[in-house]
């Protein structure tokens, strides 16, 4: 009984902290949009931060819809140099969502050829990879006939009348930078390109010039089990847990289907058609009972982030010989008398401190089979509050990919393709996103290093032909 009460208290604290952080991010975006709208309309005295009322929210709704329309007429990049594509993680968002707020805290402004796609924030790695392809190349998102039938959603999704990089091919490759789950999204897309998995497109692995993983979920995380995924299979959820609260909230949000609100922020489940307009009240009951929808079929992000889910994904993913790989693994722990503990209190985001401590103490349940041969709890103790440091360095399970530890970026020049260069840096999971001020000078050092590597050190021995050069 005491253990049950302790679990409820822990759930209450976790839910409260996450809701407060979510509200902070949302209200920050709303306040910034209202301030910009007020300034544009000639009322500078309205620039002070305010809690938006009904009228303010309607203005923000209109602004969000305008941003979405601007997204339908995208900045189209052509030719060289290759664009750098920043791919967000779980609960993330791209350009055009949450008003003017930047998931990458403005890092995209460091280069004039950077794209920040908006993908499903809770959709599966597979679905996000498909969306990323059509965001760049153009056309209607095709989730694949077999996948769509198995997981119970429509085959086709959003239409991109014009891709953001329609010339994308072997001669015009791209650099990808993926944060958190975004790194695994890029790896799955890369494999799809190699497998020629997009009808009507003759793709190959050489469409990707480099892949940079920033706190990337390359091998899963033990945090999924704290939040509610069962260690026994890595797919099911406990009856009472943080993820169940998340599931209910997402279902209600999508069922209400408030257009301006979904323009402002979207979890990405439109292809499951959960709106009240489609399923009615009885459909809501089925969704909440777990009879239908993404949480019933397992086609959402969390099963992909368990150690078992990552192992299933990784068993199909390769490291390609002509692509450059670099990984930044974050860590907010240290050893104290032989025990792994948080490295600081003030330096960890309040949303993550409890998680850093929990993940240090994680022990795989004795009743559950180990997720892979050779698993050891102590290997997974170091973490950044969301992911285990061992998971972020390079693909390890079920097979370890070629890798090299780096102390200083200059130590790995000239870069060799087909090798995961990795560096371990001090920081929690969200130090380098959303709020630039938290990281301070580290922010510029990190992103300047990434962008410089893309521009000066990652290139093929045979440089691609400049567009139209052969026709002159």
Automatic annotation (TrEMBL):
<protein>
    <submittedName>
        <fullName>Uncharacterized protein</fullName>
    </submittedName>
</protein>
């Amino acid at each position: 009984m005491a253990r049950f009460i302790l679990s409820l208290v822990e759930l209450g604290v976790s839910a409260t902290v996450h809701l407060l952080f979510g509200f902070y991010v949302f209200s920050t975006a709303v306040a910034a949009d209202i301030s910009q709208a007020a300034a544009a309309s000639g009322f500078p005295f309205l620039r002070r931060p305010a809690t938006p009322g009904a009228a303010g929210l309607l203005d923000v709704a209109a602004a969000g819809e305008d941003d979405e329309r601007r997204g339908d007429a995208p900045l189209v990049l052509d030719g060289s140099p290759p664009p750098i594509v920043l791919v967000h993680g779980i609960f993330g968002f791209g350009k055009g969502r949450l008003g003017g707020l930047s998931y990458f805290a403005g890092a995209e402004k460091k280069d004039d050829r950077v794209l920040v796609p908006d993908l499903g924030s809770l959709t599966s790695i597979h679905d996000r990879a498909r969306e990323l392809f059509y965001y760049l190349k153009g056309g209607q998102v095709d989730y694949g006939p077999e996948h769509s039938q198995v997981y119970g959603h429509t085959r086709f999704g959003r239409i991109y009348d014009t891709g953001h990089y329609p010339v994308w091919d072997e001669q015009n490759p791209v650099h990808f930078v993926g944060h958190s789950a975004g790194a695994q999204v890029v790896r799955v897309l890369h494999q799809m390109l190699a497998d020629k998995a997009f009808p009507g497109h003759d793709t190959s692995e050489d469409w990707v010039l480099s892949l940079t993983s920033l706190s990337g979920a390359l091998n899963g995380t033990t945090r999924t089990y704290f939040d509610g995924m069962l260690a026994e299979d890595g797919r099911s959820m406990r009856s009472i847990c943080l993820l169940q609260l998340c599931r209910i909230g997402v279902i209600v949000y999508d069922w209400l289907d408030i257009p301006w609100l979904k323009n402002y922020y979207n979890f990405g489940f439109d292809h499951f058609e959960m709106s009240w307009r489609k399923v009615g009240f009885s459909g809501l009951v089925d969704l909440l009972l777990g009879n239908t929808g993404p949480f019933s079929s397992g086609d959402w992000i969390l099963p992909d982030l368990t150690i078992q889910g990552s192992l299933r994904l990784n068993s199909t993913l390769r490291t390609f010989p002509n692509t450059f790989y670099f990984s930044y693994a974050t860590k907010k722990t240290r050893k104290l008398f032989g025990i792994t503990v948080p490295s600081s209190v003030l330096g960890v985001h309040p949303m993550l401190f409890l998680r850093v401590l929990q993940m240090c103490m994680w022990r795989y349940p004795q009743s559950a089979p180990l997720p892979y041969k050779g698993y050891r709890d102590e290997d997974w103790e170091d973490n950044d509050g969301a992911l285990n440091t061992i998971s972020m360095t390079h693909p390890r399970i079920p097979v370890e990919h070629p890798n090299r530890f780096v102390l200083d970026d200059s130590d790995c020049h000239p870069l060799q393709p087909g090798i995961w260069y990795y560096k371990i840096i001090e920081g929690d999971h969200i130090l380098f996103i959303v709020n630039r001020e938290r990281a301070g000078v580290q922010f510029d050092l990190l992103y300047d290093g990434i962008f410089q590597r893309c521009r000066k050190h990652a290139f093929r021995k045979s440089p691609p032909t400049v567009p139209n050069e052969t026709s002159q």
